[in-house]
Amino acid sequence: MAPPRVVPALTRRAFGRGLATTGTVLAMPWVLGRRAYGEAKPGGQLTVALYKDLRTLNPIMGIFGNEWRATCNLYNNLTRLTAKGGVEGDLAESYAPSANGASWTFTLRQGVKFHDGSALTAADVVATIEKILDPATAAPYKAELGPIAAVKAVDGRTVRFDLASPYADLPKALASATARIVSERGIADFAKLDSAPHGTGPFILKEFAPNDHVLMERNPNYFRTGRPYLDRLLLRVLPDTTAQVAALENREVDAIGDVEADSFARLSAIKGVDAAQVVGGTFNNLVLYANQPPFDDERVRMALRLAMDREQMTAAITGGLGTPADDEPISAAYEYFDKTLALRKQDLAKARELLKQAGHGNGFEHRLVVSNSPASREKTAVVVQAMAAQIGIQFKIELMDNARYGATIWNKGVASYVGNYGTRPTEDAILSKLYSAKYGIDEGRWAGTEAGKRVEALIEQGRAVTDSAARRKIYDEIQRITSDDGPFIIPNFFNSLYASWTYVHEWPALAINTEMRLEESWLSPEAPGRKA
């Protein structure tokens, strides 16, 4: 049996206690090289199982993880994240801010070609970014690119981003799934990008059936010499986890791109399968609207926090494949994670006293809507419900189809619910999304409180400051304020989980598991994909 392979990172507050059930110790993410097997061997087909929701190959409009997993193999960005969470050039060979931080200039690599043979120029970058910024496009993740005021082609290989305010994280933000570079021709034919990519990526689209499969072939003109190693890449949508496990066991697929926690132990026990986990930043957040009773009272929010046993909840929700959280969204996967922040301990007596002070001595009932996807949302709701009942808060859970939930509940201000967020490239991306009325959605309607106003100001400062020590101080304060006063219950973070046969080499095991770039992956001679 191949032991579970764990790719660790520094965790908060002696988190090792929470891993006792898995018998593993976590460190920093890297690409899984497996064993020494000589030089990488080109050729063959890698088949990867994905869960569901692969509707479009348009990188600007994609909203689901599997769409991002597909597009990162068809496109490139100006920059890309490294295995350790840093940033490096992708289509850009260099980049630098202006002296006053009002702009950033990117110089493109020479000799890069789109799949149709046309050369990459600054005009393609400008067309892509302007399309994302155009309000008529309604790009769902536009705000996460930061305060871009304008983008201009200085010459054929040079692009300048002018900012509405200084933004130190722009290079990292441009590594996000939304910012994949599309050719001018592709932007002009925007309606067809759902199924007709115009990218520079390591693979070229051969066949696409929405929510079923994507078949790609090696790009012979890829700008990274000798890459990709694979001749073909097949992404198969298998919306049932049992079917995914069976397909891996039968070698109908070579890897699973995003393993469910419930399947991890079974996959780890399969002889010849490597199961890996990376400390991640994905979380479910129970939204407590701070502009509506009863959670407009900070005492009620704190009472609920004090009812939570974080370590017990993490074990129940993740099966030991996660880390405890303290109601704020920055995990050990982020550069400015505050590892000194003490884990809040359960204190039921104090929680009941706070409820009594707030006029809820006998507790209260509260509606809680939960989407049926991913399944971990319902687990989170049930565990929070049990913890809250100890102090008289009775959550009435209403399970809802994901499409209906998205259309009628999520961020609509009508009911508390359990949200779900993946790891972002930067602290600013997730903090702005959740807490800022200026740059994000202010999901908990908390930005108007005194604490919320302070966090909004700190978010603004964090965007502008480039000194690492100063930024750490800012993000430490944000984590402490949002943990104590914010509008969410966030009990845990989920590790990113992967599984693949040992004949698959250089699997990209990253905290942001949607960046499934497979240009470095290759297959041993015994792989079924080499014999097809």
Number of strands: 23
Radius of gyration: 23 Å
Helical residue percent?
25-40%
- Give the N-terminus to C-terminus distance in angstroms: 27 Å
Uncertain stretches of 5 or more adjacent residues: 1-31
- Major sheet: 13 strands, mixed
Which whole number gives the mean pLDDT? 92
Number of helices: 14
Description:
It is a single chain. Helices cover 26% and strands 23% of the residues. It is of the alpha+beta class and 532 residues long. Strands 1, 3, 10, 11, 12, 13, 14, 15, 16, 17, 18, 19 and 20 form a 13-stranded mixed sheet that branches. The protein has a four-stranded antiparallel sheet with strand order 6-7-9-8, covered by helices on one side. Strand 10 and strand 11 (213-218) form a beta hairpin. The longest helix has 18 residues, at 468-485.
What tags apply to this protein structure?
alpha+beta; 13-stranded mixed beta sheet; disordered N terminus; four-stranded antiparallel beta sheet; 532 residues; globular
Task: Summarize, please.
This protein is α+β, with helices and mostly antiparallel strands. Helix content is 26%, strand content 23%. The strands form five sheets. Strands 1, 3, 10, 11, 12, 13, 14, 15, 16, 17, 18, 19 and 20 form a 13-stranded mixed sheet that branches.
Secondary structure elements and pairings:
Blueprint: E1 5-7, E2 30-32, E3 45-50, H1 65-71, E4 79-81, E5 87-89, E6 92-97, E7 103-108, H2 122-133, E8 148-155, E9 158-163, H3 170-173, H4 184-188, E10 203-209, E11 213-218, E12 232-237, H5 241-249, E13 255-256, H6 261-268, E14 273-287, H7 298-306, H8 310-318, E15 322-324, H9 348-357, E16 364-371, H10 376-389, E17 393-400, H11 402-408, E18 416-421, H12 427-435, H13 450-464, H14 468-485, E19 488-489, E20 492-501, E21 504-505, E22 507-509, E23 522-523
Parallel strand pairs: 1-14, 3-12, 3-13, 16-17, 16-18
Antiparallel strand pairs: 2-22, 4-5, 6-7, 7-9, 8-9, 10-11, 11-12, 13-20, 14-18, 14-19, 14-20, 15-20, 21-23
Helix pairs in contact: 7-9, 8-10, 12-13, 13-14
